Amino acid sequence: MATPIAHVEVILTQENVHKEFGKVLSIIRPSWAPSEFRFKISSKNADNGIVKCYSTSSRDDTIIIRMYSEDHDTLTNNSSEVAFIKLVHERYGFAPKIIASFTNGIVYEFVNGKFMTLSTITMESNWRLVAKQVALLHSTEVEESLHKSAKISDLYTTIPEDYPIKLKNADFNERFQNEFPTRDEVIPEITDLIDHVLNIHSPVVLCHNNLRPNNIIWNKETGEITFVGFQDAGFSFQAQDIAFHFWKFVGENPLSFDDYPNRNFQIRWLRCYLEHWYEYTARDPNSVTHRHVEKLFVQVNSFYLLFLYQSLAEISIFDKLQEMGYPTDIFDVALASYKEYLRLKDEILNLALPNVSSENTSSFTGWCVGDFDSAFIEAMYANRRTTISERYHQLESSFIMNRQNILSGPMTRKEYPYGSERTSVLWFRPAIERLRAAIEEIRRLSS
């Protein structure tokens, strides 16, 4: 039985951590003397801060404190983050070991290495390992309890309803009126974008959802790569998770859109990813074709377009942040992203989505659990009776045609090594149960 993670009800900030963290240390490091505690701030921004902590008598035992702001989702989703990090650490080894949690954050073991940068994340040996680990994460089957707590991004709230009509600052408001879209223009635009990404049928898988370079630690000596920052982990669209990773190549501020991965880099990265994903989901990696890669390329860049447009949401909180004394650079970031969106919109929306259905949908064998989840989520988001009804009949027909072969035939088992462990992936039985549940839910919605 797994050892439970210690939890302490205390809200830590970078101002009080020196005083209040002792409540956590008394449980996880009782041998450390308070007079020997040392803290070093490693990262600080509006959402979270990272602090290193060690004892002068035990410098080799460094721990990391990751604190989130009091209005961050982690305050209500702390247990889910802990569960996902534990799962990835124990099953695959590329997440840090969790030591404890507190009201607004977590404590984990120090990981040797440095946060990735654009120059290190584009090194071939590194991006191939990142692609491999993302594929492994996306292939993960989890316990039902994690399904219940997992988050699937509610894309309809990407642009909040409180998108402003005007800004309080006269100078910024003049630019806002001249260079940004109006609320009446934003709502139909984001609706069309959401319809587009839902119609490209990206599977729903277990995602990191925040795979920016500074959430990836690279140990140059060992070549190992560790993922951190799992506070947003949960079920989401496969292409969305990859698109977010590529999007963050452009940086935070200032943005450098020239650093967004070009087509050649993306095609190589996506092929590497797909071959590993097929392997980990009990399919033949050699069956990945150019059309599979091209399809994922279209899906990923469609989500990238959505990310560019959703940057307009920052304007909704511009007045509030300015009143709180935050820098006004989010205005320029949002504007630059919007201009890049306008530049790429027609090019990306006109990309043709290759048809690969004839290659693997004649039988159940080529499907994975994410395909069923994706169909179900599409129907839920579309909220149109015809779409729900059509999807129900498609799923039911596939189930009826294949259930006898699947239920009476042998289980498909794929064993693969990862590190020092071997893991088994059993696909068909969980897939059938998920399909049954999806059919019942879609039948209920369409009645």
UniProtKB/TrEMBL annotation:
Lineage: Eukaryota, Metazoa, Ecdysozoa, Arthropoda, Myriapoda
PANTHER family: CHOLINE/ETHANOALAMINE KINASE, ETHANOLAMINE KINASE
Source organism superkingdom: Eukaryota
EC top class named in words: transferase
Protein name: ethanolamine kinase
GO molecular-function terms, A-Z: ethanolamine kinase activity
GO cellular component, one term: cytoplasm
Presence of the UniProt keyword Transport in the record: no
Keywords: Lipid biosynthesis, Lipid metabolism, Phospholipid biosynthesis, Phospholipid metabolism
Gene3D superfamilies reported in the protein's UniProt record: 3.90.1200.10, Phosphorylase Kinase, domain 1
Enzyme Commission number: 2.7.1.82
GO biological process: phosphatidylethanolamine biosynthetic process
Pathway: Phospholipid metabolism; phosphatidylethanolamine biosynthesis; phosphatidylethanolamine from ethanolamine: step 1/3
Pfam families from the UniProt entry: Choline_kinase
Membrane spanning stretches: none
Similarity field: Belongs to the choline/ethanolamine kinase family.
